[in-house]
Amino acid sequence: MQVKECVTSEVVTIDPDMSTKQAFALIKSLRIRHLVVVKEGVILGIVTDRDLRRPKIADVFKSWHDLYRVSDDFQVGDIMSTPVTTVDAEADVKEAARLMVEKRIGALPVTSAHKGLAGIITDFDLLRALITLV
Description:
single chain, 134 residues, 5 helices, 6 strands
């Protein structure tokens, strides 16, 4: 099975200049965990709900705003994960799974030669593909 057969094509992209507060609101409102950071058609990074957390999670916090870096003071470009690992739409899903395990990540932007960013494949997409293969 190829990645293109189980990719989520409706990938949500954001600009690196977006505030983390806006990114957090987007993640929560769309009930997703991954945002691909793109500028002028180039994939720069990926932001997850984990990236929005403050680095010292053991600190005492009083609200979610204390736990997460959600403010207009931080931009997505300041916290995004880079370099971003991608997978080609024509690749076998085993390759996507291998990359995700090797890199210990939960999603990969999917690219295609003629389309550029073609979607995103997540750990959930791989589990769904596994069900159809078994």
